[in-house]
Write a structure and sequence with these properties.
The complex is a heterodimer. Helix content of chain A is 10%, strand content 36%. Chain A is mostly beta strands. Chain A folds into 2 domains: 80 residues, Alpha-Beta Plaits (2-Layer Sandwich), CATH 3.30.70.140; 37 residues, no CATH class. In chain A, the strands form 2 sheets. Chain A has a 5-stranded antiparallel sheet with strand order 2-3-1-4-5, covered by helices on one side. By secondary structure, chain B is α/β, with parallel strands linked by helices. Chain B has 2 domains: 136 residues, Aspartate/ornithine carbamoyltransferase (Rossmann fold, 3-Layer(aba) Sandwich), CATH 3.40.50.1370; 157 residues, Aspartate/ornithine carbamoyltransferase (Rossmann fold, 3-Layer(aba) Sandwich), CATH 3.40.50. In chain B, 36% of the residues lie in helices and 14% in strands. The chains are: A mainly beta, B alpha/beta.
Chain lengths: 140, 309
């Protein structure tokens, strides 16, 4: 199966197989109003299987979201059909308004316009905790 | 500009600072007159959005004994919070009237939000089931005065270890000292949260055991920290009723404990310690309540940057 290469846009590559749809949702790509191609379970030399997302427009994607969902992914910026930038993704130390704290006892459940902030509490396990109540972020 | 220091979690204080606070508290006990005017013209605001007797009165007594004044909001239901004012706004406003704030709130993280918005130091006087650092200061001074050390102690924590904020704070503080081990005594539903186990005990390599029995570990304990099962932390009354009498410390149970063991409790107790235990010299919980005032005095002095010579 072939998907045409893009001229100006973003390719999110090396997504762990099975994480593509989740990343699509978390990045809210459906609301961008631009063509987006999803390729799931593509053969990969490095990962054996991977997912790829191609966005056919020069948009900004929130790399904190990618780092939270799948820090092994890469972001390639394409301009005039040429790869001009390859961004390596890392787990962010802090996540601001990326995920919501689900603890009903947390101050974020009632305080007006308080950002939902999580800190990376365990890098090895990719674990994030709410800075206000220490509740662990739910599984990605 | 001088940075504003707040204490939200016991881990905001270094081991040296804890030692300094204990030394100041011991000096206050020895020489109260020296401190009688230390906070003259200073005001403490006590913002209690949740019922409290001893913590609020202890803070207020602490400030009065330092020669300062107190302004109070003692009931969230009759304050602007009932009109929907945010914690952030309340903290900004109260900063205009007071030099330091002590705040209790039912929501976890509320004190952190207050500290982020206040222009004066904020002391967390309890944020839901999360943290209660000044109770831990009282616990530490009690352990120091009663047992003379923090190292090489076996500390039993009994009751509601899930929502018991004082338990979480005490574990954080005691984990810094060598040779400390914990025995976690609770029903399954009220076991210590994973974040305390993972982030503090496992990460620091602190030995601990979990058990549902209060009797079995009794002879090995240096400290038994009893807690109340808190009705206000339950969404479901049935769960509360089922769990509230999980443990009751009686003279018979205490008979198996060491002679130099000490029983602590953050109070109030409901019925988890029999009144008959009060007469036992090992019952240190009323002395602990007195110690709380001295540690709060020391903390107020530290956060206001006041040194007494």
């Amino acid at each position: 199966m072939n998907v045409d290469s893009i001229q100006n846009g973003i390719v999110i590559d090396h997504i762990t197989a099975g994480c593509g749809l989740l990343l699509y949702e978390q990045l809210d790509l459906g609301s961008l109003g631009v063509p987006v191609a999803m390729m799931l379970g593509v053969s990969s030399r490095k990962l054996r299987k991977k997912d790829i997302i191609k966005i056919d427009a020069p948009v900004n994607v929130n790399t904190d979201v990618i780092g939270f969902v799948d820090p092994g992914a890469t972001v390639n910026v394409i301009r005039d059909g040429v790869l001009v930038e390859k961004r390596t993704i890392e787990m962010p130390e802090r996540l601001v308004d990326v995920i919501k704290c689900k603890n009903p006892r947390c101050i974020t459940s009632c305080e007006q316009e308080l950002p939902h902030v999580f800190r990376l509490s365990d890098k090895e396990r990719g674990e994030y905790r709410c800075v206000y109540c220490d509740t662990k972020a739910e599984t990605k | 500009m001088k940075s504003i220091r707040s204490v939200i979690d016991i881990l905001d204080l270094s081991t040296d600072e804890l030692e300094g606070l204990i030394n100041v508290a011991l000096d206050i006990i020895e020489h109260p007159d020296k401190y009688a005017d230390a906070c003259r013209r200073k005001k403490l605001a006590t913002l209690f959005f949740e019922p409290s007797t001893r913590t609020r009165m202890s803070f207020e007594a602490a400030m009065y004994e330092l020669g300062g004044n107190v302004i109070s909001m003692t009931d969230g239901a009759t304050s602007s919070a009932s009109k929907g004012e945010s914690v952030a706004d309340t903290a900004k406003i109260v900063s205009c009237y007071a030099d330091i704030i002590a705040m209790r709130h039912p929501k976890e993280g509320a004190a952190l939000v207050a500290a982020q918005n206040a222009s004066v130091p904020v002391i967390n006087a309890g944020d839901g089931g999360h943290c209660h650092p000044t109770q831990t200061l009282a616990d530490l001074l009690t352990i120091r005065r009663e047992l003379g050390r923090f190292s090489d102690l076996t500390v039993g924590l009994c009751g509601d270890l899930k929502f018991g904020r004082t338990v979480h704070s005490l574990i954080g503080a005691m984990s810094r000292y060598p040779g400390v081990r914990f025995v976690l005594i609770s029903p399954d539903e009220l076991r210590l949260p994973d974040y305390v186990k993972n982030d503090i005990l496992d990460r620091c390599g602190i030995p601990y055991t979990e058990t549902a029995s209060l009797d079995d570990p009794m002879p090995e304990l240096d400290v038994l920290y009893m807690t109340r099962v808190q009705r206000e932390r339950f969404f479901n009354e049935e769960d509360y009723v089922r769990l509230k009498d999980s443990y009751v410390l009686t003279p018979e149970k205490l008979a198996r404990a060491r002679r130099d063991m000490r029983v602590l409790h953050p109070l109030p107790r409901v019925n988890e310690i029999s009144v008959a235990v009060d007469r036992d010299p090992r019952a240190a919980y009323f002395r602990e309540a007195a110690n709380g005032k001295y540690m709060r005095m020391a903390l107020i002095l530290m956060l206001l940057g006041i040194e007494v010579r």
